[in-house]
Amino acid sequence: MRRGARGMHPGESLTVGGLLAGMKYLMLYRRLQILLFLAFPLLAPAAEPSQSPLPDLLQPRVDFRAGKRLYAEFKDSPVEVSVGYQGLSVSYMGVSFRYRISTYNWKDAENIGFFPGNGDPWNELHALSISFRSVRLLGDETMLIYGLSGDIGAERQMSRSFGAGANLAVLRRFGESWSGSAGIMAAYHPLRFGVIPAIGLRYDDEDESGISASLGVPTNLKYRVDEQWRVVAEGGMASGTYRLKDNSPVSEKGYFRHRAIVPRLGVEYRPLPNLELSASGLYYFDRQWRVYDRRGSRIASSRLDSGPGFLLSAEWRF
Fold first, then answer.
1. What is the number of structural domains in the chain?
2. How many Å apart are CA 6 and CA 41, to the nearest integer?
3. Residue 7 lies in a domain
4. Residue 285 CB neighbours (<10 A)
5. What is the 3-state secondary structure (H, E, C) of 194-255?
6. For 121-139, what is each residue's pLDDT tens digit?
7. Nearest Cα residue to 202 out of 221, 219, 179, 220
């Protein structure tokens, strides 16, 4: 029996605010973000022509995940930072609520270039999102996937932290093992607005060879050992945009944005038919931080050393 799979950024909630930082990375991340959204149907088991994908899409589920990026040093200063995060997602009938908190621990923060003060630049950042997605069958082998989303990313006050997005895609099966998708996404945040097309490709032969793979974001390769265990190698991106508090010593009512390329290697275990547990090792490459003022103009940028992390998750389907 095949198991449904999920697209995932390592430890990151999906927010429209996370798409935006500068135009160069805006376009890159939005391309990745829409592919990630499309990964839901691409990673799900292909339905037989007589079956509807709606039961899996609308199946209630609760997902909890926790992880940590270990201490890493800034390339232009001796400052070090680690980030721990916890997130909870609840989905019912195509509607999903997600909350995530990120906790920052600093060493020698007073030496960081964009922080002219004592103490820490910030300690906790919060992200909250709601999304809706659904499917309409267009034939035995083709379906339309569409969705809307809204999110908040903030240190404390929430004004000018709201983002919204809409997406539309067509998914088509080719034979028993192949499927592809093409779509478009529009996203708005106080920093930027953008529209971008994207495509995805999926191969699923878990029933016979135990192998499945996807090209897009995440790009992954999975091997099913048996009905309970699966090994996963995956590449994706971690990103987020947050509105800083009114009296932030970094940028009053400004914004903080981070991004990194994050491959992961992990195992997934299903002790019960409705319960899936996973543990993964992560490695963060090309880590970039940017700070903006309240008008959306960039005022500082930094790079961090590459480094490891980990992610634990549990999903229960009702």
1. 1
2. 9
3. no
4. 11
5. EEEEEEEEEEEECCCCCEEEEECCCEEEEEECCCCEEEEEEEEEEEEEEECCCCCCCCCCCE
6. 999 999 999 999 988 989 8
7. 179
Measured on CA atoms in the order 242, 248, 254, 255, is the torsion positive or negative?
negative
Domain of 189?
17-317
**Model pTM score:** 0.80
Tens digit of each residue's pLDDT (9 = 90 or more) over 261-274: 999 999 999 999 99
pLDDT tens-digit profile of 3-53?
A: 433 433 444 434 444 434 333 433 443 333 433 333 333 333 333 333 344
Sequence-ordered list of residues with C-beta below 8 angstroms from that of 89, at least 6 positions apart, any chain: 13, 61, 62, 63, 64, 96, 97, 98, 99
What are residue 170's DSSP bridge partners? 144, 182
Residue 177 or residue 100, greater confidence = 100
Q: Is residue 11 part of a domain?
A: no
Tell me, yes or no, whether 1 lies in a domain: no
